[in-house]
Write a structure and sequence with these properties.
The complex is a heterodimer of chains A (191) and B (277).
Chain A: H1 2-13, H2 24-29, H3 34-64, H4 71-93, H5 95-101, H6 104-108, H7 112-123, H8 128-157, H9 169-184
Helix pairs in contact in A: 1-8, 3-4, 3-7, 3-8, 4-5, 4-7, 7-8, 8-9
Chain B: H1 2-25, H2 32-40, H3 53-63, H4 76-87, E1 97-101, H5 122-129, H6 144-148, E2 154-157, E3 160-163, H7 173-177, E4 183-187, E5 192-194, H8 202-208, H9 218-222, E6 228-231, E7 234-237, H10 247-251, E8 257-259, H11 270-276
Antiparallel strand pairs in B: 1-4, 2-3, 5-8, 6-7
Helix pairs in contact in B: 2-3, 2-4
Chain lengths: 191, 277
């Protein structure tokens, strides 16, 4: 039950992009087309879960030696290597998926939402299983935000009534703000 | 003190070891043709071929040999021939392409309607005031294209962009930059061009600029090769049918059609007479 609560709260209430403002760069950058936004979202779910699988045990080691302050450095190191490894594996065994994810996979290395998930797992004191649930929820939330935003943007792109001064980036930022406001409505739904 | 250093070093070493082993174990042979193709491409990464840089084009070529070898306008025919040699196919014809400015509204021809002191870029002027001259279709003349050009091939002379055909590689960056879409990419062998894209009716167009195409249709009647059509009050030359005879340029009453073969002094005599009128 707790697992479901965590997943739902990460998707709706504590959505990484729209409520915690992590991973804004791909959110604004890769949301022009619906299919690439979807690809990015799926890749993020994948990497978030993998990164959690790897960083949670490492944190136990760091805690044992009482050097938890090295968390950020070690996590970034591990996540970057992990993404590289995954890329090699995909290239060798699932070339079609590698091609579909394309440039998004290396881009995720620097996505702060991934590091954010790993750190929030530790800070919230979740166990291994709950951490993985947290990662899945965060990833799905990211995917949801990306797909919603890309859908809105692609509609707005073809709109003629947009005033000259709002075209492009200003409209994108306003749209993002409104989407974020809408998600504020979910607050209090779960803990 | 020593433990944290050792642990971080150990984590780093383990990651490095895993990655090194993985890169050997999961090694995917790089296509040799790709490397050879990439070596022949100029590496300007301008994207004019339609791919994301030279790597992407080489990759696409290596995968699909039926793809045209002549997509790279920077390298032109030389590179196309070399690429074809690597692939062992016939080189397609790669006509050199250049940018053509479809506006001749220099300072004396197109009426300036304001003294613009704002941000000195065409896109800003276009966004706030729709351009600086009476003609809303023409070259704004603040040089966004010149700033965008990597090859020093386009400059503003007398308030209108002019292409240096020797330097131009036809990458099309200027055409994408121009907020009025005044620049088009065309084969370099087409020397006679309509330098106007004003679609207003004749009288309105002429009031705005003395070099405007007024859509009178004299050129279309003169042309022996049926290469010219007048649509929306502006003449268009079909680059395939045009034989560069230059008769239309002679016949044009306003100077909207120009023959690049004849090097004209800028701001020729009709300009003075019409500015007064």
């Amino acid at each position: 039950m707790l697992a479901i609560t965590i997943i739902m709260s990460m998707i709706l209430v504590n959505n990484y992009v729209l409520a915690q403002f992590l991973g804004i760069c791909p959110f604004l950058g890769v949301s022009k087309k619906l299919d690439s936004a979807f690809g990015m979202g799926v890749a993020v779910i994948f990497v978030m879960v993998l990164a959690t699988l790897a960083t949670w045990p490492i944190m136990q080691v760091l805690n044992k030696f009482d050097i938890a302050y090295l968390q950020t450095v070690v996590f970034i190191l591990v996540i970057a290597s992990l993404v590289q490894l995954v890329e090699m594996l995909l290239k060798k065994y699932i070339p079609s998926l590698h091609k579909a994810l394309g440039v998004f996979l290396p881009l995720i290395t620097t996505n702060c939402a991934v590091l954010g998930v790993c750190i929030s797992n530790i800070d919230s004191g979740y166990g291994y299983f709950l951490s993985i649930c947290n990662a899945i929820g965060a990833g799905v939330g990211f995917l949801l935000a990306m797909v919603l935003f890309a859908g809105v943007r692609s509609k707005l792109e073809n709109e003629n009534g947009v005033p000259e001064a709002f075209k492009g980036v200003p409209l994108t930022l306003i749209t993002a703000a409104m989407l974020s406001l809408a998600f504020m409505g979910f607050s209090g739904l779960f803990q | 003190m020593l433990t944290p250093i050792l642990i971080v070093v150990a984590v780093g070493l383990v990651c490095a070891a895993i990655l090194t082993i993985a890169s050997k174990v999961f090694f995917v042979p790089v296509d040799e043709t790709f490397a050879n193709l990439r070596a022949e491409l100029p590496g300007a990464n301008c994207g004019a071929c339609g791919y994301n840089g030279c790597d992407d084009y080489a990759n696409a070529l290596a995968e699909d040999h039926s793809l045209s070898c002549s997509l790279c306008p920077v390298g032109g025919a030389d590179v196309a021939a070399k690429l074809a040699e690597v692939l062992g196919v016939e080189a397609g014809s790669a006509d050199k392409e250049v940018a053509v400015v479809m506006c001749n509204g220099h300072k004396d021809a197109a009426k300036t309607i304001m003294e613009y002191k704002g941000v000195q870029t065409c896109s800003a002027a276009k966004q706030f005031f729709g351009g600086l001259s009476a003609c809303p279709h023409g070259c704004i003349g603040l040089g966004d294209c010149a700033a965008a050009c990597d090859f020093d091939a386009i400059h503003i002379c007398d308030g209108v962009a002019v292409v240096n055909r020797d330097n131009c590689v036809g990458c099309g960056v200027c055409a994408k930059t121009c907020p009025n879409s005044v620049i088009k990419i065309q084969t370099a062998k087409n020397l006679v061009v309509v330098q106007c894209k004003n679609t207003d009716k004749g009288a309105v167009a002429r009031k705005a600029c003395s070099n405007a195409c007024i859509g009178c249709g004299k050129c279309a009647k003169t042309c022996k090769f049926e290469a010219i059509t007048v649509e929306n009050n502006v003449a268009t030359i079909d680059p395939v049918k045009c034989k560069n005879c230059g008769m239309c340029a002679k016949e044009c009453p306003t100077g909207a059609i120009n023959n690049m073969r004849i090097k004209k002094a800028p701001a020729a005599k009709p300009a003075e007479a019409k500015v007064e009128a």
